UniProtKB/TrEMBL annotation:
GO terms for molecular function: metal ion binding; tRNA-guanosine(34) queuine transglycosylase activity. GO terms for biological process: tRNA queuosine(34) biosynthetic process. The gene is tgt. It comes from Coprococcus eutactus. Its cofactor is Zn(2+). This is Queuine tRNA-ribosyltransferase. One of its GO terms (cellular component) is cytosol. Catalyzes the base-exchange of a guanine (G) residue with the queuine precursor 7-aminomethyl-7-deazaguanine (PreQ1) at position 34 (anticodon wobble position) in tRNAs with GU(N) anticodons (tRNA-Asp, -Asn, -His and -Tyr). Catalysis occurs through a double-displacement mechanism. The nucleophile active site attacks the C1' of nucleotide 34 to detach the guanine base from the RNA, forming a covalent enzyme-RNA intermediate. The proton acceptor active site deprotonates the incoming PreQ1, allowing a nucleophilic attack on the C1' of the ribose to form the product. Its EC number is 2.4.2.29. Homodimer. Within each dimer, one monomer is responsible for RNA recognition and catalysis, while the other monomer binds to the replacement base PreQ1. It catalyses: 7-aminomethyl-7-carbaguanine + guanosine(34) in tRNA = 7-aminomethyl-7-carbaguanosine(34) in tRNA + guanine.
Length: 377
């Protein structure tokens, strides 16, 4: 299922086989929260920009259109016309992000919907049932994403409960995968390591969840308030305690620099809203840092966003034209920026894979970090 092809230091170059195809790692998952990439990007575009896995959100799809409707439509792959792997987040992050709208108990979490205020209950079993209805390739375990800087006692209690919830998730997924009307009977469950910035809690939890022999493991609860140095330290101490022969997924991270550093620490999977969110606000990524295309200096700039870039925007359109679209509030401008940013991320992952294969990851990482820190050209 997961095979390491080669290593360069702790950086791993692997492939991961799923019922919806084999993916090459390290990889970046393009975030389509409500079964769509924000910025008018269709699934037919995703293949053109090198996307291997699309990520959707359990909570948001449960709220609308409803996971039972998605199941009725044949599952998420058929619903959104995507034949490659899909990973669904468990709804656990909403336990963190909707803190003002929820109440946590041993059974699960009661939310008030952010859309219409109605009460929603979600526990491990409900999260697995929703994800089974969505029929994603990879389902994430239901957890609590505790604030990175929460006090120790809170984090200890939260992580202990998350560990108990994971066992319930595993049992429920096994049950669901055996049912005759389940669309994807090969759905995979990834466990999630939590523990805020307490290294002993992280390590203890990593050891505990590794015993469950799951197809993959994620590190959650980072990039939520701690410094980059704290995040890298937690990766340094935690990743060695997760099974090396399974994919390691760093949830919700991050910037190109974050990804380069995390790959160096043995991480395989990444996802983040940055490329699409920044693109919608005219901020585009290049190897020389980020640019704001609304800046006046691009008004008559006939170059592409980045010279040599193979994205659909850079192939045909100038900075001046895209800036005009953005200033005129034409959706096409936003779409071009999102397409470019997602291509940039996916292409960077391809470069990372090649650098690991060729045993030059350290020099690639160093030159890329220096280039990114150089600011705009």
């Amino acid at each position: 299922m997961y095979k390491i092809l080669c290593k360069d230091g702790r950086a791993k170059r692997a492939e991961f086989q799923t019922v919806h195809g084999t993916v090459q790692t390290p990889l970046f998952m393009n975030v389509g929260t409500a079964a769509a990439i924000k910025g008018a990007v269709a699934t037919t575009d995703l293949k053109d920009i090198g996307c291997q896995i699309e990520l959707s959100n359990t909570y948001h799809l449960h709220v609308r259109p409803g996971d039972k409707i998605v199941k009725q439509m044949g599952g998420l792959h058929k619903f959104m016309y995507w034949d490659r792997p899909i990973l669904t987040d468990s709804g656990g992050f909403q336990v963190f992000s909707l803190a003002g709208l929820r109440k946590i108990k041993e059974e699960g979490v009661t939310f008030n919907s952010h859309v219409d205020g109605r009460k929603i209950f979600m526990g491990p079993e409900e999260s697995m049932q929703i994800q089974s209805n969505l029929a994603s390739t990879i389902a994430m375990a239901f957890d609590e994403c505790a604030p990175a800087l929460a006090d120790r006692q809170y984090v200890e209690n939260s992580v202990a409960r998350t560990a108990r919830w994971l066992v319930r998730c595993k049992n429920e997924m096994e049950r669901l995968n055996s049912l005759p009307d389940t669309i994807n009977k090969n759905q995979l469950l990834f466990g999630i390591n939590q523990g805020a910035i307490y290294e002993d809690i992280r390590i203890d939890h990593a050891k505990r969840i590794s015993e469950l022999d799951l197809p993959g493991y994620a590190i959650g609860g980072l990039a939520v308030g701690e410094t980059a140095e704290q995040m890298y330290h937690i990766l340094d101490v935690t990743v060695p305690y997760l099974p090396e022969d399974r994919p390691t997924y760093l949830m919700g991270v991050g910037t190109p620099a974050n990804i380069l550093e995390a790959v160096d620490r043995g991480v395989d999977f990444f996802d983040c809203v940055y490329p699409s969110r920044n693109g919608r606000h005219a901020h585009v990524y290049t190897k020389h840092g980020k640019m704001n295309l609304k800046n006046a200096r691009f008004e008559t700039d006939d170059r592409p966003i980045e010279e040599g870039c193979g994205c659909p925007a850079c192939q045909h359109y100038s900075r001046a034209y895209i800036r005009h679209l953005l200033k005129a509030n034409e959706m096409l401008g936003m779409r071009f920026c999102v397409l470019h940013n997602l291509y940039f991320y996916n292409n960077m992952m391809k470069d990372i894979r090649e650098a690991i294969e060729e045993g030059r990851y350290q020099s690639y990482k160093k030159s890329m970090l220096e280039s990114l820190a150089g600011g705009e050209e």
